[in-house]
């Protein structure tokens, strides 16, 4: 795909996205500014999954471009400090990301394998999986050992796009409960809010590609 990236992002969540529907075991944690954030317990983990849902006045291609431009993407991704391409192979991309977390927590890094698929309705699904052994450990960073996530973008008839951002993960090391509880709400809320602000400033496209 011309060397541009197939990207998506960030810590902590679960699979099972089905349009805008939310399964019974997802609990609404926050509904603010047109963004809904749902949380779900993960068996065997002390960290919750999150799912953020928003409608954005932009088409799928615009949102795709904002994810594939890593320099721009790191600006709207919550807690992102660095985001760079490691490898691109068709629908598959490997990216390296570092997260700047509040003191005194040591920052985290991760390698994410991203697979991108177009849907029949002109939408986009990006699946994310951490591959911690892809590259050697980096001094001063704690490698995220587990991450499973997904971005789903579904065009609506009114010209907007429904965006669902969902994740589950294990951050590695020790994370205070106050931070983990805050992160699973703040990450989708702030990421989607900032993405919307950036996307809705972009020039309007005449049609989907």
Automatic annotation (TrEMBL):
Domain START: 26-204
Keywords, in A-Z order: Signal
Signal peptide residue numbers: 1-23
Pfam family, one: START
Superkingdom to which the source organism belongs: Bacteria
CDD domains the UniProt entry points to: START_1
Entries under InterPro entries matching the protein: START-like_dom_sf, START_dom_prot, START_lipid-bd_dom, START_lipid_transfer
Name of protein: START domain-containing protein
């Amino acid at each position: 795909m011309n060397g541009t990236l197939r990207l998506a992002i960030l810590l902590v969540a679960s699979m099972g996205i089905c349009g805008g529907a939310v399964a019974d075991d997802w609990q609404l944690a926050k509904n603010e500014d047109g963004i809904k954030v749902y949380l779900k317990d993960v068996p065997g983990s002390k960290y919750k999954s999150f799912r953020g849902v928003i409608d954005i006045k932009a088409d799928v291609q615009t949102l795709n471009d904002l994810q594939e431009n890593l320099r721009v993407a790191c600006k709207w991704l919550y807690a992102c400090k660095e985001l760079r391409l490691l490898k691109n192979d068709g629908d598959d991309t490997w990216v390296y990301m570092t997260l700047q977390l509040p003191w005194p927590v040591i920052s985290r890094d991760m390698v994410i394998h991203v697979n991108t698929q177009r849907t029949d309705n002109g939408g986009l699904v990006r699946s994310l999986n951490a591959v911690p052994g892809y590259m050697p450990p980096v001094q001063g960073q704690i490698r995220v050992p587990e991450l499973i996530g997904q971005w789903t973008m579904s065009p609506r008839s009114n010209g907007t796009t429904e965006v669902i951002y969902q994740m589950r993960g294990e951050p590695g090391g020790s994370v205070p409960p106050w931070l983990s509880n805050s992160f699973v709400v703040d990450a989708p809320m702030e990421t989607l809010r900032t993405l919307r602000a950036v996307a809705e400033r972009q020039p309007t496209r005449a049609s989907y590609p």
